């Protein structure tokens, strides 16, 4: 009787493990499908936004070519409100691109730096150069910019 009970218990446990395993696999499959759907959506939204920016650029070009918003709207088959919105979007993206480009430009050394870099590559001021040069002279050392100090 005990062995029959143990066999039933083991069979029940095995069946529960299998069921749990199937449920887990199904959950993983569902999660992968959801992630795929979200990724696809995000990619298509990015393409849509890029296309909208290209249209805005084209409308801005049309306004220049046709000599005004009204003329461009008539030629493109758009309302004046749509042209205004595209021009506004184009101006916003142009200003963002310009500010991004300005951020990428390397910073100019400040006017109070001479060669601008210490031996370890860090920017230092003239007063810092003088202090380092004096300390170096006291210790009997020389620096490449020690003679330039303050």
Instruction: Name the structural class.
Output: mainly alpha
Q: How confident overall, as mean pLDDT?
A: 80
Question: What is the 3D form?
Answer: flat
* Whole-number count of domains: 2
From the alpha carbons, calculate the radius of gyration and give it in angstroms: 35 Å
Strand content: under 5%
How many β-strands, per DSSP? Answer: 0
Number of helical regions: 4
Helical fraction equals over 70%
Poorly predicted spans: 111-116, 143-150
The main pleated sheet reads as: none
Please report the distance between the alpha carbons of the first and last residues. 100 Å
From N to C, what is the helix and strand string? Answer: HHHH
Quick structural overview:
With 150 residues, this protein is mainly α. The chain is 74% helix and 0% strand.
Q: What do these coordinates show?
A:
Helix 1 packs across helix 2, helix 1 (2-66) packs across helix 3 (80-104) and helix 2 (69-76) packs across helix 3. This protein is mostly helical and 150 residues long. The protein folds into 2 domains: 2-104; 109-150, no CATH class. The protein has helices at 2-66, 69-76, 80-104, 126-138. The protein contains 4 helices and no strands. Residues 111-116 and 143-150 have low confidence and may be disordered.
């Amino acid at each position: 009787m005990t062995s029959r009970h143990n066999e039933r218990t083991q069979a029940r446990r095995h069946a529960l493990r299998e069921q749990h395993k199937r449920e887990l696999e199904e959950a993983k499959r569902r999660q992968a499908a959801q992630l795929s759907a979200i990724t696809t959506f995000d990619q298509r939204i990015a393409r849509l936004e890029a296309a909208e920016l290209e249209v805005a650029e084209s409308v801005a070009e049309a306004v220049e070519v046709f000599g005004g918003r009204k003329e461009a709207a008539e030629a493109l088959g758009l309302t004046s409100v749509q042209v205004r919105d595209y021009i506004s979007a184009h101006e916003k993206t142009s200003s963002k691109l310009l500010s991004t480009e300005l951020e990428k430009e390397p910073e100019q050394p400040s006017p109070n730096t001479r060669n601008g870099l210490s031996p370890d590559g860090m920017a230092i001021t003239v007063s810092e150069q003088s202090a380092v040069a004096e300390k170096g002279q006291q210790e009997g050392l020389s620096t490449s910019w020690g003679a330039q100090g303050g």
